[in-house]
């Protein structure tokens, strides 16, 4: 996996990409993501997260009502950010192929920069409360449909179920980077971009 310290300004970017210094709340979320990625949600205590940001475990309750609330904010945050980022890039595209290229670049950028969040999402989604898990799933489905709309324009021969399966396959390829990134970030980005587009072109 990519080193957990290179987490796309991690949670601070979920909140504000313009902030020069992350807020205390953002620091806590960043520490929680790193800890959850290393040890799993159930392997991390509130005191562990507090120690990582220099405050007592109970002091975290001034910012979050529970460890579960931290996980919920992390996973709904990344799902919401992926959806909004995808919609923005499609809206700025000149044509469907440009939209697809932008979507691929966006997802690659996010995955390479947020390895801890990708790991937490894949491993700990089921640890969310049912209501929060449903919200994450709804955001994910909406994000997938952004891809499906574009894929069906680029590849009119694909029906929507096939386009949807292709989108999920591409996500699997890109989201494997926490375990497969052996190049520097720029080289890995180029490789993933080429492989994702090639996979889409080969979809039957």
Automatic annotation (TrEMBL):
Q: Does the keyword DNA-binding apply?
A: yes
The record places the DNA-binding region at 45-64
Q: Name one Pfam family in it.
A: TetR_N
The organism's superkingdom is given as Bacteria
Q: Name one GO molecular function term.
A: DNA-binding transcription factor activity
Every HTH tetR-type domain range: 22-82
InterPro entries noted in UniProt: Homeodomain-like_sf, HTH-type_TetR-like_transc_reg, HTH_TetR, KstR2_TetR_C, Tet_transcr_reg_TetR-rel_C_sf
Swiss-Prot/TrEMBL keywords = DNA-binding
Instruction: Identify the stretch annotated as signal peptide in this record.
Output: none
Q: What name is this protein filed under?
A: Transcriptional regulator, TetR family
């Amino acid at each position: 996996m990519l080193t957990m310290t290179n987490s796309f300004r991690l949670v601070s970017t979920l909140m504000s990409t313009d902030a020069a210094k992350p807020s205390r709340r953002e620091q806590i979320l960043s520490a929680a993501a790193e800890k959850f990625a290393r040890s799993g949600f159930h392997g991390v205590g509130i005191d562990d997260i507090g120690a990582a940001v220099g405050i007592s475990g109970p002091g975290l309750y001034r910012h979050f009502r529970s460890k579960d609330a931290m996980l919920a904010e992390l996973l709904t945050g990344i799902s919401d950010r992926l959806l909004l980022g995808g919609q923005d890039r499609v809206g700025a595209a000149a044509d469907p192929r440009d939209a697809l290229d932008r979507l691929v670049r966006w997802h690659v950028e996010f995955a390479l920069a947020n390895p801890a969040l990708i790991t937490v999402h894949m491993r700990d989604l089921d640890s969310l409360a049912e209501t929060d898990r449903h919200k994450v799933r709804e955001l994910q489905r909406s994000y997938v449909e952004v891809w499906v709309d574009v894929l069906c324009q680029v590849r009119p021969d694909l029906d929507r179920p096939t386009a949807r399966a292709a989108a999920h396959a591409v996500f699997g390829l890109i989201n494997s980077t926490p375990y497969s990134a052996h190049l520097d970030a720029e080289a890995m980005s180029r490789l993933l971009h080429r492989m994702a587009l090639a996979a889409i072109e080969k979809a039957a």
